Amino acid sequence: MDRIPILKMGEYLLVTIQVDMHDQLALQLQEDLTERISRESAAGVLIDISSLDVVDSFIGRMIGNIAAMARVLDADTVVTGMRPAVAITLVELGLSLEGVHTALNVERGMALLREKVAARHA
Q1: Which member of 59, 65, 79, 114 has the lowest number of beta carbons within 10 Å of its beta carbon?
Q2: Do residues 78 and 44 lie in contact, with contact meaning Cβ atoms separated by under 8 Å?
Q3: CA angle 6-68-53, nearest 5°?
Q4: Main-chain phi, psi angles of 12, to 5 degrees
Q5: Read out DSSP for 7-73?
Q6: Which fold has domain 6-121?
Q7: Is the separation of the CB atoms in 17 and 48 below 8 Å?
């Protein structure tokens, strides 16, 4: 079975999705990421979706679920690289992705993640 790599960068986890997501892969990512957040005591997760052309309602909900599970495990979530068509689709599907912060690129996303984590610990 395919797996999406999860990289550890200090107290953060970085996920860059470079393949088209299908439902089983999204469920596997959710499970793997939740386990890694817990095992590594990660303070935050950055998910880069810049390679995704399409995000359906299931994948959108999985991103929201990952963020909700990360919050329960005391980690913030930032999604980067969302294409305008993907954002439009998510809005049209009525998915608000509560608790998910967004940034244009990975560099800005890491800065936002550091800011959110620092504010939470202040």
Answers
A1: 65
A2: yes
A3: 55
A4: -120, 160
A5: EEETTEEEEE--S---HHHHHHHHHHHHHHHHHHT-SEEEEE-TT-S---HHHHHHHHHHHHHHHHT
A6: Transcription Regulator spoIIAA (3.30.750)
A7: yes
Q: Any residues with CB less than 8 A from the CB of 83 and at least 6 apart, and which?
A: 50, 52, 53
Q: What is the mean pLDDT of residues 74-101?
A: 89
Q: What is the pLDDT of residue 15?
A: 96
Q: CA 31 to CA 11: how far, in whole Å? A: 19
User: Can you read off the two tokens belonging to residue 86?
Assistant: 């993907």
What is d(CA 115, CA 109) in angstroms, rounded to the nearest whole number? 10
pLDDT of the residue at 21: 84
